[in-house]
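Hello,

Our lab assistant flagged a job as stuck in the queue for most of the afternoon. It eventually completed. Since we weren't sure the result was trustworthy after the delay, we are filing this so someone can double-check. Below is the sequence as submitted and the structure that was eventually returned. Let us know if re-running is recommended.
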Amino acid sequence: MDWRGILATSGLPDVLAAYDARVVGTFPLGLDVAGSDVDIICHAPEPEVFAQELWACFAGCEHFALRQWAHGKRAVIAQFSICDLPFEVFGAPVPVIMQAGWRHFEVEERLLALGDGALHAAVRALRRSGVKTEPAFAQVLGLAGDPYLQLLDLASARDAQLRGILAQAGFA
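-- returned structure --
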């Protein structure tokens, strides 16, 4: 069973339905490598309630761990495995469309759609060598500075600007 099948039968979609849950990251982008986890981000207006629900529903899963940020938005992160597939569920009291994880995912998806197959292959090759997703995109696109901030800056760019960046990096 592939990641979509495991997700569908896991109960996660039902448990997280009230939290505007969205799968982001390497799996839906086709950039997963051995050891990648399925990343799910959620809008959790009440982080403590969200944490209790995750604990109640998934504490029995293999490799279960739950933590909460001590400062800021007090985001909750749960990690566990289902059918040997690792999951990470992130919930913050910020609407999903405003979360950095969603904005990274959207711009990466747009770049892959606008770029040619060579962009996907180049990012995937770096991923296979152990480079994280955002640094891999930044490296192949020649973006200097903090890769996470660079991609956040690109999230609001128009397609024409993204095409220019892709062309400059040789992916046109």
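-- support follow-up --
The delay was a queue issue, not a problem with the job. The result is valid. Residues 100-168 form one domain. The first strand starts at residue 22 and ends at 24.
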